[in-house]
FAST kinase domains 1 (Poecilia reticulata), 830 residues
Amino acid sequence: MFRLQCVRPCLRRLLHHGVGSRDHVLEGLQICSADDQVLDVVGKNRTKLTVEHVSCAVRMLWDFQKERPELLRTVHLIKCHPQFLTLRVLAENKISLMDDLTLVDMLYVFLRLSVEPHDSLVQQMVSEAWRRVDGLPMSSLSKFAVILHDQGLHSSPLMGHITNILDQRLSSIDNARVLAALMVSVSSLVSARLRDALISRAECLLDTNNPLNYNTPRRMVQFLRSVKYTHRPLLEKCNEIFLRNIARLDAENLSIILGLYQSLQFNNCYFRLAAKERLIELIDTSTDPYTFSKLFATLAPISSAEIRERLENTTFLLADEFSAQQALAVVEALEESQSRNLSLLNKITSVIQKKLHVYRSVEVARITQALFLLHYQNPELFAALRTILVSFLQRSFYPFEVTMLTRVLAMLPSPRLDEGVAQHVNNVIAQCNLSELNTISFAVAKWIRTDPSYRHNTHSKYVRLLQRLSQCGRERLQTADQLDLVLDEIKFAPGEWFEEMLLEETFVTLNRMIDQINPSNIADLAFFLTRTNRLNPPLMERIASVAIEHIDEIHFSATYPTLLPFSVLNYEPAHADELYDACIKRFTPHISCFDPHLLVLLAYCLALADHFPEELIREIFSIDFLGKLDCQLESLHDSLKMRTKQRLMELNRAVCLECPEFQVPWFHERYCQHLQKKVNGSVSPVQQQIHTMLGEVLGGINFVRAAVVTPYFYTIDFECKLDKHLKPLPYSGTSTLQISERGKVLWDSNSLENARDELPAGAHRVAIDFMDSKFFCKNTHHMKGEALMRKRHLEILGYRVVQIPHFEWNSMELSTPHAWKRYLRKKILG
């Protein structure tokens, strides 16, 4: 009993001490449910606040803001509150007492609460974090990198230090969110080696990522866009996560993702279609200007006419509330969808005019381009835009900016180029890459054509610019030592000036770097060769050998551009069969992963080279696939849609003619009839000349038909019939197709039916085609794959094919009517 009485006072003292040590300030903060309550607690306890209290208060203020939509946040009210100033002063005084995690978190939150980057609080926090940067945990380092990136310090020495730390500690990162934030922040400083290491780590960590977290893969795609690298395996993983979360994505996120895909030239039809459906669902709930402008900019270019009209009506009602950026997004969407809604365009333009003073140079250029392409008629506005563009150009020394402004200025009508603009462009040219030099050359060529003095002589300022462009282009190629950089610069370069002045030098450079061709760049190189339409055996042999040896390292979708120059330019490398077999084996297990339109293009590419993989052909001509293709075509741009339809028809024709065992039906009859009626029936003077001479050689104009439509809708220039003794046979009645004196093909109503005269025993038809330059490679007389496939098909249809190459017909040997007739007689009659 005595012992218990002794213990009781001790317990009382302990209990009293426990109650006395409770943190009432912290408890007061934790029960707050609004911003003003937090700030009241701060005001009542300012002398008692510790680092923990300040940190808790600042975090809570941001947490309350995060929970609200962007438009309902009250950051401006918090920033002006006197007790927020108290928090800032206390935080600045206690920086040295903060641990690493608290320091970076508070810096992040203060910036989110609109404290200016030049404020002494932010400056001291950044300095302290820099001092501790080597010891920061990776989660804090990631957040610190984001802070620096948001402040425009992405190329600073401090960011370089963070990049180095990331390189050393990459293997220790086990959180995809942390890695993704670091990837975006350091993207402007990574080497090719670190880029590949980051991508590899990202692929591993994405497998452990929460499948409902779509922000992390979005940042990874953003990284790929920043480093201009289309890494398809990572993109496909990210795309799967986006598809799983499509019902949770809002208009802003869908707009960002589709924009990133467009920049990377990554087109996934399943995501595109799902995004379109999701955006349509969001129309009714997108009622504020911010959300609706995002929705309109993304959905209008890919929607049906009905949906677009509905969107445009709502846009007209909201137009006066749009900010400068929202009006810009809307006018670009109107241009992309080729809208003809003049009342809406006038309204958006009036909004833009009121806000012209707030736009940056890039934005003014985008506005000018959109209005010009919409054929908008407003001379006063274009004059104002031109003045602003010239002002921006003369103040800029960034090559990409000067190039863009020069290109857009050249669009606008102007009597002559300002001397100051020409001199400024000339001063910047030496810093430009090959793509930028090519763009400037287009602008100069346009200025030359529109200058009133052009017909008399080319002004010396244009000559100086063109000479400077050529000189800088050659120097850049001659000093280049990295194939990947050259390929990146020439990806979109070929044009009239580039082909004339730099293409030969480009091939010299590419051949000099032939040993740098590897699995990651052969697709880009092969695509460049196809676009230039030039045969280069050493480069193509190297592409073939790398593809055969490293086929497993090449993404299955890259087999299409890799094979393209071989099929299109009709070049057989030393191991042609091995190359095609390796590529076919590579993509066949992944047929279902291809976008439908890309699979059609791939199959056509193979058909040109007389390859028809059965599994591929059966997939394309299945009902399910054709249904998918129809759905995808709705969301493609008109040019790609028309090209895909044309290639499907040509593939259908090739399979029917060359692989009848597949029993694929010919289902393009009506499509071809419709196309035939729309085709321009004019013919060249050379074809008229040949038509006349054929009549003389064969014994009369009734012995030859012009512009004959064959079964499966090939149009051959001329057709004649020869008996078994090679004597010409006349056509019964009048020819269904004749050429008028003005060079027009005269079609009668039965011409498309293509009724054919019966042939006597032993007789045969002769197809006579004039082969102009488009059928040959530009640097040789080598015939391209399309002409060869056409010849195969006409022979299957029973024709003997006579081809008249343009370089033979126009040669010095055939410079008289007698020589031409002798040439035709030898070709046709032997």
User: Anything to note?
Assistant: Residues 679-829 form one domain. The chain is about 60% helix and 5% strand.
